[in-house]
């Protein structure tokens, strides 16, 4: 790599935290506004307890990496930042719902999330389930608003893409495959997955929403099909890399830094590339995925430097 390219990489990496923080702050403000206590047309009232639980689950924490991907993917094509933030808010609501439900005793049974009690611990299981349900449906409320895009056809494309990323053939389906591998069914016998099956499961469970974030940003910006396909490839690689990095954090991370219990995957017989390939093998796979992500957006040149920095961030994160 030449000196100029090294300088470009260093500049993009240096600017990345500021850009990530800016999107996080704007997303936080938008989520806060959307989760206001006042009912909107078509609603009757917003019951205080479930609204409080929704706000607890979605405000005041997280890197907002999915909204960041949506915003930066849209800006790559000259898209409107406020519209992209609406897409980012929608995917963040889906992500937060999934965390609330994943933490439940019937799923991962976690007591901590982002260093504080999980939603069912802070409230109760019934309220947590309803808050998660409400966050999921609210995501599609957000995408359906003209504020997200004035063209109904664009909004339909976004709704369809997010529904498929979050549902049966996406995140929910991936979670089912993960539970099956743990042995939650079939008389409690773990069902080990090989590398290919593990990658499919992880691309659904974790990767699908990250992939949507990239493609959703391109859609709301009016990018053509070829450009959307490039962001699809980038998002797919980012999604896989994010899960591998997460698995490495579980295997090696400090709970105080990560913000939740670690070293749980091995005890639960979870299907991970760390289990299949070992720590060193998983790190090599992670490096390959970062290279794959960078290659997917190579045609956009320096305009995509911040997305390349995002790929490196995924690989290097410590929480």
UniProtKB/TrEMBL annotation:
Entry-linked InterPro entries: Isoprenoid_synthase_dom_sf (IPR008949), Polyprenyl_synt (IPR000092), Polyprenyl_synt_CS (IPR033749), Prenyl_diphosphate_synthase (IPR053378)
Record family assignment: Belongs to the FPP/GGPP synthase family.
GO cellular component assignments: cytoplasm
A Pfam family the protein falls into: polyprenyl_synt
Lineage: Bacteria, Pseudomonadati, Pseudomonadota, Alphaproteobacteria, Hyphomicrobiales
Protein name: Probable farnesyl diphosphate synthase
Any GO BP: terpenoid biosynthetic process
Keywords: Isoprene biosynthesis, Magnesium, Metal-binding, Transferase
Coiled coil (residue ranges): none
Cofactor: Mg(2+)
UniProt GO MF annotations: metal ion binding; prenyltransferase activity
């Amino acid at each position: 790599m030449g000196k100029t390219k090294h300088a470009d990489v260093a500049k993009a990496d240096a600017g990345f935290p500021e850009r990530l923080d800016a999107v996080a702050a704007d997303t936080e403000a938008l989520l806060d506004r959307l989760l206001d206590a006042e009912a909107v047309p078509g609603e009757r009232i917003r019951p205080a307890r479930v609204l409080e639980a929704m706000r607890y689950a979605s405000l005041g924490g997280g890197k907002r990496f999915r909204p960041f991907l949506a915003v930066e993917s849209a800006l790559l094509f000259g898209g409107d930042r406020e519209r992209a933030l609406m897409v980012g808010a929608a995917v963040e609501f889906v992500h937060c719902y999934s965390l609330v439900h994943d933490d439940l005793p019937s799923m991962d049974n976690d007591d901590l999330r982002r260093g504080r009690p999980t939603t069912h611990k802070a409230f109760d299981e019934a309220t947590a389930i309803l808050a998660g349900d409400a966050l999921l449906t609210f995501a599609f409320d957000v995408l359906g608003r003209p504020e997200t895009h004035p063209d109904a056809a664009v909004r339909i494309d976004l709704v369809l893409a997010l529904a498929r990323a979050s549902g049966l053939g996406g995140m929910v389906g991936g979670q089912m495959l993960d539970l099956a591998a743990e042995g939650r069914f079939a008389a409690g016998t773990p069902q080990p997955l090989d590398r290919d099956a593990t990658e499919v499961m992880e691309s659904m469970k974790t990767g699908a929403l990250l992939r949507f974030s990239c493609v959703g940003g391109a859609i709301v910006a009016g990018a053509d099909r070829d450009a959307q396909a490039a962001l699809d490839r980038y998002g797919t690689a980012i999604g896989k890399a994010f899960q591998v990095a997460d698995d490495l954090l579980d295997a090696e991370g400090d709970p105080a830094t990560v913000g939740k219990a670690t070293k749980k995957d091995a005890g639960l017989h979870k299907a991970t590339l760390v289990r299949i390939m070992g720590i060193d093998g998983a790190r090599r796979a992670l490096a390959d995925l970062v290279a794959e992500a960078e290659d997917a957006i190579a045609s956009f040149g320096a305009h995509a430097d911040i997305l390349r920095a995002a790929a490196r961030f995924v690989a290097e994160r410590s929480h």
